[in-house]
Design brief:
Blueprint (H helix, E strand, L loop, with lengths): L11 H15 L2 E2 L2 E2 L14 H5 L14 E4 L5 E5 L14 H11 L11 H14 L9 H14 L3 H8 L3 H18 L1 H11 L9 H9 L8 H10 L12 H17 L5 H9 L21 H13 L7 H10 L2 E5 L3 H14 L7 E7 L6 E6 L27 E2 L5 H10 L7 E2 L4 E3 L19 E3 L9 E2 H7 L2 H11 L1 H10 L22 E2 L1 H12 L3 E3 L4 E8 L2 E5 L6 E3 L3 H17 L13 E6 L5 E8 L2 E8 L8 E5 L2 E5 L6 H13 L19 H7 L56
Parallel strand pairs: 3-5
Antiparallel strand pairs: 1-2, 3-4, 5-15, 6-7, 6-20, 8-13, 9-12, 10-11, 14-17, 15-16, 18-19, 19-20, 21-22
C-alpha cells in the first residue's frame, strides 16, 4: 500500500510520481537518459498507476565503506587501508559553500521539488527533443543518491556494478520509487549530507571529506568558495574534470559552477567573478592506501594484522563475513606494536643486512607473559619490485609467510632439554657424546611403532676434537649434536613432541612436527614468530602465551562508533617453573661463555641459543630477557644460497653461523627495544659443572663455534639432505628443502639441523 499523508490523501509528490511512473518513463526519457522499450519491464500492457504502486521496493542503505586506520600501541598511525577512501562527516562539518555549490550545479530546485523535479523533466524533454538526442538530464539529487546507494551495495564486483548502473527502464522506475521513499523518510538536509558522503570525486576519493583532503589537504568544513566550486564540478565527470591531470578543463568546469551559484542567487556576481579569476591552488595529498605505506618498516606487521582479522572467527563466522567487515572499514585498530621496539628492529636489520644482499633477515619480538607482538620486520621491504617481497618471513604460510618456515638448527635443542627435564632427567645428566655415531635405533614414538634407523644414518659433531662425555650445561653451550640425539634416544620422541605441542611449535605450513630423532638438530621449518613465542615461555617461567597483535578495535558506522571483540592471548602452563628456570640457566651460559657471546647483552639478564643448518642455508639466534623474547633468522627465502664466502651488510664472511650474523642483529634490536625499560632478573638454579676440561676449553676459545660455528656434518647436506624423509619417514637420497614456495623433498633421515 502506498504511504498516505496524515491528512488522508497522497502527497503532491506521490501523485506526480504516479503520473510520471508510467507516462514519462514509457516515453523513454527520465533523468535525461534514453531508455529501451517499455515492454522490457512488462508495464506497457498495464500502463497504470496501480502497477507502479505495487512494485515491491524498499531501500536498505548499506553502511558506507570508510578507511581503516591501524595504530601502534601508543596510538600512532601505522597505516591506512581501505577499499574506498572515505570519511563520513555530518552536514555541520561540510562548508556551506560546498553545500550550495553542489545543489546549484546538480539540482538547483532541490529544496523546492519532491523526489522528481517535474519542471526539470519537462525542460529536459523539450531540450532533448529539439536537439534530437540526450543533451540535458533531470535526475534530482535524491535520485542520484539512490543510484549511488546501488553502486555502494555492489562494492567492487564489476558485474554487480554494471547491474547497478545499467540504463534500463526497470532500474529507473525502481530508482524513482525509492527516491520517493527517501524524500519522505530522510528529509532534504539528511539527503544532502548522505549524498555528499557517498558520491565519488575522483582520485580514489569517495565523499567530500576525502576529496577535500585529496585536492586541498584540508577538512571539508574549511573549503572556501572556489575550492567548493571545483569539487562540485567534479561529480558530473571526475575523470574529465580532474584538476590534477587537466587543470584547464577543471578550471572551466569550476567557473561554470561559480556562475551557476551566482545565477541562482547563492553568491553575488562580483564574488563569482573574483573566484573565477583565482588559481586552482591545489595542495594535493597523494592517496596512501594499504600496508605498503606503513611507517617504520611495519608493512609486514600490518599485513599480519589484516590476515588475523580475516582468519579469526571472533570477527565473523565465515571468511566472507569477516571480509565484508574489513572492506566496509571504518575501523580503528590499536595494535600491540611498540614503536620504540619496531624502530630498533628496523635499524638493526638495516645496519647488518642490506636489502640487495643475496640473503634476507627477519626479526620478531614478543612480550613474555602476554603474547604481545611488539616488533616485526625484515631486511627486504614489502613490495613487488627488485629486492622487495610480499612474503612475511616471520610468520606461518597461513598468515602470508613461506610455505614451510625455515629449518631452525640448534635453536631447537632447548625444547629437547625441557622435555627431558620434565621427564625427571637431571640437569647434570651426562652422555658419552662421541664425535660421531649412528642415529640410535629403535627410538620410541607416541605410537606403538618406534622409529628405526633402517639405513644406518649417522650424526656427528662439529669437529673430531668434540668428544664427550658431556653434561647438559656444557653440551648446550657447545651445541653438541650427539648429546641431544642420545637424550632423545633415552626419553623417546613422544615427550619432545608433547613439549613442542605445549609450546605451540608447528611447521610453517601448520603441520605437527614429525617424530624422528633429527628434530633435535632443528631440521624442520618453523617461523620466527613461533620460535620467539616458544622461547618467551622460558622467560615467563613456563607459561606459554599465544601471540596477539590486536589490542582493541572500534568501528565507525556513519557517525556512530562501537567496540568490536578482539582475540585474546591464551596462556597455559607448558612446563614447571623449575624446568624453565633450568633452561634459563643453561641458555644464559650460551651467551656468557658459549656460542652466542656476540649476542650477549651487558646491561641485563639475557639468554639464548644459536642455530645453523646444513650447507649454511639458515642461521638463527633466538634469545630473551625476562621481559622480551626475540627470534632472528638469516638465509635465502628459496633455500638456494649457501652462506659461505659471502658478504652480508657490507661485511665479508667465510662462514656464516648463528652467533656471527643473527646474534648481533638480535643484540642491537633488543638493546634499542629495551632502552629505558625495567631490567628484571632470572630465577637461576644451581647446575654443577664438570670441570675436567675447563682449562682445555678456555684454550680452545670457549667452544668450536667461535672458530666458525657448526661446520658441515660430513656429507655437506648431500645424501639424506636437509629435511629429507622427515615428513614421510622414508629412506633414500637427496631430499632437500627445495624451493621454499613450491615444495618439500623426501629422502632419508638426514643430518638436517646443524649444531650451534
Amino acid at each position: 500500500m502506498p504511504k498516505k499523508r496524515s491528512g488522508g490523501g497522497l502527497s503532491p509528490t506521490q501523485q506526480a510520481a504516479k503520473f510520471l511512473g508510467v507516462s514519462v518513463l514509457a516515453g523513454a526519457v527520465l533523468a535525461g537518459i534514453a531508455l529501451p522499450a517499455v515492454g522490457a519491464l512488462g508495464l506497457a500492457a498495464k500502463g497504470s498507476v496501480e502497477s507502479f504502486d505495487e512494485l515491491p521496493v524498499s531501500l536498505k542503505t548499506p553502511p558506507l565503506s570508510q578507511r581503516t586506520t591501524i595504530l601502534d600501541a601508543e596510538g600512532g598511525a601505522i597505516a591506512t587501508v581501505y577499499s574506498r577512501d572515505r570519511t563520513v562527516v555530518g552536514l555541520k562539518d561540510i562548508s556551506p559553500y560546498m553545500q550550495k555549490a553542489i545543489v546549484a550545479i546538480e539540482d538547483s530546485r532541490f529544496y523546492e521539488h519532491g523526489a522528481v523535479d517535474l519542471k526539470g523533466v519537462l525542460r529536459a524533454l523539450n531540450k532533448n527533443a529539439r536537439s534530437g538526442g540526450v543533451s540535458e538530464g533531470a535526475s534530482t539529487l535524491t535520485q542520484q543518491y539512490v543510484k549511488n546507494v546501488f553502486v555502494e551495495e555492489a562494492g567492487d564486483d564489476p558485474t554487480k556494478v554494471a547491474q547497478a548502473t545499467q540504463q534500463t527502464l526497470g532500474r529507473k522506475i525502481r530508482e524513482l520509487k525509492l527516491a520517493i521513499q527517501v524524500e519522505e523518510e530522510l528529509g532534504k538536509k539528511k539527503i544532502l549530507e548522505n549524498y555528499l558522503n557517498i558520491t565519488f570525486f575522483g582520485q580514489q576519493a569517495y565523499g567530500v571529506e576525502a576529496a577535500s583532503q585529496r585536492y586541498f589537504s584540508k577538512h571539508a568544513k574549511d573549503l572556501d568558495l572556489q575550492e567548493s566550486a571545483l569539487l562540485a564540478g567534479l561529480v558530473q565527470s571526475p575523470t574529465r574534470y580532474d584538476p590534477i591531470n587537466d587543470e584547464a578543463e577543471a578550471t572551466k568546469r569550476r567557473n561554470i559552477v561559480l556562475q551557476r551559484m551566482a545565477d541562482v542567487g547563492d553568491i553575488s556576481q562580483a564574488d563569482a567573478d573574483k573566484a573565477k579569476a583565482a588559481p586552482l591552488d591545489l595542495k594535493v595529498s597523494r592517496p596512501k592506501n594499504g600496508c605498503i605505506t606503513a611507517v617504520k618498516g611495519a608493512s609486514f606487521f600490518c599485513k599480519y594484522v589484516e590476515k588475523v582479522f580475516l582468519r579469526d572467527p571472533v570477527f565473523g563466522k565465515t571468511r566472507e563475513e569477516r571480509a565484508k567487515i574489513w572492506n566496509q572499514g571504518g575501523l580503528t585498530i590499536r595494535t600491540t606494536l611498540d614503536p620504540q621496539a619496531q624502530e630498533s628492529v628496523q635499524d638493526s636489520l638495516k645496519k647488518h643486512v642490506y636489502k640487495s644482499d643475496p640473503v634476507a633477515a627477519a626479526t620478531t619480538l614478543v612480550e613474555p607473559g602476554t603474547g604481545k607482538i611488539v616488533a616485526m620486520g625484515q631486511s627486504k621491504p614489502y613490495g613487488y619490485g627488485k629486492n622487495e617481497t610480499e612474503y612475511n618471513y616471520s610468520v606461518d604460510a597461513a598468515y602470508g609467510g613461506s610455505n614451510y618456515g625455515f629449518p631452525t638448527g640448534s635453536t631447537f635443542k632447548p625444547f629437547v632439554a625441557a622435555a627431558a627435564l620434565e621427564q625427571g632427567v637431571p640437569a647434570t645428566k651426562e652422555y658419552s657424546s662421541p664425535y660421531d655415531m649412528p642415529y640410535p635405533s629403535p627410538v620410541q614414538t607416541c605410537s606403538s611403532s618406534p622409529w628405526v634407523n633402517t639405513s644406518g644414518e649417522k650424526v656427528e659433531n662439529e669437529n673430531e676434537s668434540e668428544v664427550g662425555p658431556y653434561r647438559m650445561r656444557e653440551a648446550m653451550e657447545k651445541s653438541v649434536n650427539t648429546y641431544f640425539v642420545q637424550m632423545i634416544s633415552e626419553i623417546g620422541l613422544c615427550p619432545v613432541v608433547g613439549m613442542t605441542d605445549k609450546l605451540h611449535v608447528r611447521q610453517g605450513n601448520g603441520d605437527k612436527l614429525p617424530q624422528t630423532p633429527s628434530i633435535a638438530l632443528g631440521s624442520i621449518g618453523i617461523s620466527p614468530l613461533t620460535m620467539a613465542s616458544a622461547y618467551a615461555t622460558f622467560a615467563s617461567r613456563g607459561m606459554y602465551c599465544s601471540p596477539i597483535a590486536i589490542e582493541s578495535i572500534t568501528q565507525k558506522i556513519g557517525n556512530k562508533r562501537k567496540s568490536l571483540e578482539v582475540p585474546k592471548s591464551t596462556c597455559s602452563r607448558a612446563m614447571s617453573e623449575k624446568t624453565a628456570d633450568s633452561i634459563n640457566t643453561l641458555l644464559q651460559g650460551v651467551v656468557d661463555s658459549g656460542t652466542g657471546q656476540q649476542a650477549g647483552l651487558s646491561d641485563r639478564d639475557n639468554a639464548g641459543k644459536t642455530g645453523t643448518t646444513d650447507e649454511r642455508k639458515n642461521a638463527w639466534f633466538v634469545g630473551y630477557t625476562p621481559n622480551m623474547s626475540g627470534a632472528v633468522w638469516v638465509g635465502s627465502a628459496t633455500q638456494q644460497v649457501k652462506m659461505k664466502n659471502i658478504t652480508i651488510g657490507g661485511v665479508p664472511h667465510s662462514l656464516v653461523f648463528g652467533g656471527a650474523v643473527p646474534g648481533p642483529i638480535w643484540k642491537d634490536a633488543m638493546t634499542g627495544a629495551l632502552s629505558g625499560k625495567d631490567s628484571p632478573s632470572f630465577n637461576l638454579v644451581d647446575i654443577p659443572e664438570d670441570d675436567k676440561d675447563k682449562d682445555k676449553d678456555k684454550e680452545k676459545g670457549r667452544g668450536d663455534e667461535d672458530r666458525g660455528d657448526d661446520g658441515d656434518n660430513g656429507d655437506d647436506g648431500g645424501e639424506g639432505g636437509l629435511i629429507g624423509g622427515l615428513i614421510d619417514g622414508g629412506t633414500g637420497n637427496g631430499g632437500t628443502f627445495g624451493d621454499l614456495f613450491q615444495g618439500q623433498g623426501n629422502g632419508g633421515n638426514g643430518n638436517g639441523g646443524r649444531r650451534g
